Amino acid sequence: MLSRAHLLGLFVVAFLVIFIATMPARLAVRWMELGSAVTYSGVEGSLFNPRLSGVSYRKMPIGDVGVEPALSAFVLGSFHGKVTMRGNVSGQFEVVEYSDTEIIIKDAHLAVPVDFTTKGWPLSGAVSLNSSSIALDSRAGCSEGSFTLRTDMFAPALKAFGGDDIILAGDGRCEGGQLEATLVGENRRLAVTVNTAWRKGENLVADITLAPKGAAPPSEAVQMMLDFAGLRREGKAWYGQLSLPVDL
């Protein structure tokens, strides 16, 4: 049988656990010292599961963010833990190092919607990114790491060629602030290759190769679209470059 002292000790421990677990989420956010790079409009939830609404990172709108901080975040006063994003950017990842100048994340699975027109090309859909480890520098942008990309954003523009929708996929890497990736895809009428390069503060440059399958010439409407986009024909393929705005 437990003595009164033991019962009192168990009661105190249980009280402290409940008290800590139900402490307001705002206190957890203060402890983690997210810095001036992260702004938000509201906080709710508990100490170990704060939820931030209206989040922006360096003035880039993110949306709503759920956080599961690791215990080390409270000991070290710097954020480490799992992040779930819902909004302009959706997905999840784990932060292993965080500061005002650099964020290192692992096990990232992110998706960004795309919907705009450039040079007469309607680009609509989403871009998804998966990475085991990647580093983001607040000054240089994407600084180190590798990733895989997948997108259907070119499908609306390429419908004029016929065939099924085209999904582009491929690998890329970050090094010294330069992001580079090569995406490929095809359907029964067209093969597409897109080589991309991007630096923070600049437009993303996409070099596109379109290789129609078969000997039939493109329709007049398709030819006008290619000419307007600035693609040139060399042999049976078309080559060109698009400059896409990236606000990160």
What would you say this structure looks like, in words?
- The protein is of the alpha+beta class.
- The chain has two domains: 24-100, no CATH class; 113-125 and 145-248.
- Helices cover 19% and strands 54% of the residues.
- The chain has a 15-stranded antiparallel sheet that branches.
- A hairpin with a 2-residue loop joins β7 (102-118) and β8 (121-137).
- It is elongated, with a radius of gyration of 24 Å.
Topology:
Blueprint: H1 4-21, H2 25-32, E1 38-39, E2 42-46, E3 49-57, E4 60-69, H3 71-76, E5 81-87, E6 90-98, E7 102-118, E8 121-137, E9 141-151, H4 155-158, E10 168-175, E11 178-186, E12 190-199, E13 204-212, H5 220-229, E14 232-234, E15 237-244
Antiparallel strand pairs: 1-3, 2-3, 3-4, 4-5, 5-6, 6-7, 7-8, 8-9, 9-10, 10-11, 11-12, 12-13, 13-15, 14-15
